[in-house]
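so my prof wants the structure for this chain in the tokens format not the other one, which i didnt know existed until like an hour ago. anyway here's the sequence
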Amino acid sequence: METIDHLIYAFDMTYLNEELYITLRQKLGEIINKLNALYKYQISKSDNLKTKLKIK
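here's what i got, hopefully its the right format
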């Protein structure tokens, strides 16, 4: 993800210390997991966008 790249760049450029970098990566990992779960839930519903697109 682009956000991960920005975090890595900020850490490499010493805008972030290692402790903050690790904390932000962990939080970002949690957010990514939640977004993936939401995506999988929406795809699994029978009246989702994927189903509607197949009809066309």
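also thought this was worth mentioning. The CA atoms of residues 7 and 13 lie 10 Å apart.
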